Amino acid sequence: MSSVADASLSLPDRQRLPLLRALLADPFTCVALILVTGFLITAIFAPWLAPYSPIKIDVLHKLQPPSLAHWFGTDHLGRDLLSRVIFGARTALTIAMVSVAIAGAIGLLLGLIAGYGPRWLDAILVLSFDSLNSLPMIMFALAIITVLGAGTGTLIIVIAATSFPSYARLIRAQTLALKNSDYILAERLLDASAARIIFIHLLPNVVGPLIILLSMDIPVVIMVEAGLSFLGLGVRPPTPSWGSILYDGYTSIRSAPFMVIFGGLPLVLATLGFTFLGEGLRDYLDPRLQLRRPA
């Protein structure tokens, strides 16, 4: 009965519920939470869930269709496709969460400094943010990979470097809106240090919108990682990646179309799951947005 009642609540009413109950009250967010939880469990327990080694080559059984022995079939080298999909979830989520966390931390720090610091420093930082935002992702990735070589670490650097300027601009805008508020002016009158004002008073008030943006960007990063791996600019073989699975399936699409299906399905489900979960978090954490939306 409680779940039925929760489903009929308006968005502002849901915001007053505990987080988990509020997320479960919306059917789309509930399904997304189940999908995301499933992918996280799969990534964490991949060595125990995968039936075979994801890098074991068995050319005598290459391009085998789905069967009881290999539920998703095998690829062009005879590797078990289900095992590679499971370990591919670990690769995708590790890169997405680590790169988003690094970019979020850098953007949070630089955004606070730009918003609260002197104007000359703000101008320099904003110019830097705009310059990095103007760089095409693929060209920047090619330049970094040429210097550092392809790999998981390089991919994290590329994604973090191209993501943090947008986070920094968001935090800067929030900081500029709050720096002249009454409670900040009162702290200045009490001779509070800039560090105290930034980390005690400004930080808790600007981190909410950043969390929303980070959660909404995780599926974007998953797609970027898959796209770069598809182009050969991502993780190094034989590390499993959904993008490399799709590329292998593309090259063998006439003889083994199931590789494209099983390689693309988790990518679609993960993208949808994180997108709807991010929207659910946005509705919960941003009451101003809720009040603007129709009930």
From TrEMBL:
Identify the taxonomic lineage of the organism of origin. Answer: Bacteria, Pseudomonadati, Pseudomonadota, Alphaproteobacteria, Hyphomicrobiales
Membrane topology reported for the UniProt record: Multi-pass membrane protein
Where it sits in the cell: the answer is: Cell membrane
Q: Which family does it belong to?
A: Belongs to the binding-protein-dependent transport system permease family.
Task: Indicate yes or no for the key word Transmembrane helix.
Answer: yes
Q: What is this protein called?
A: Peptide/nickel transport system permease protein
Q: Which InterPro entries match?
A: BP-dependent_transpt_permease, MetI-like, MetI-like_sf, OppC_N
The record's Gene3D superfamilies line, in alphabetical order, gives: MetI-like
Q: Mind naming one GO cellular-component term on file for this protein?
A: plasma membrane
What keywords are assigned to this protein?
Answer: Cell membrane, Membrane, Transmembrane, Transmembrane helix, Transport
User: Any transmembrane segments, and where?
Assistant: 20-46, 92-117, 137-164, 210-235, 256-277
Q: Which domain of life is it from?
A: Bacteria
For the ABC transmembrane type-1 domain, which residue ranges apply? 89-278
Return one Gene Ontology term, BP aspect.
transmembrane transport
Q: Does the keyword Transcription regulation apply?
A: no
Q: Principal localization?
A: membrane
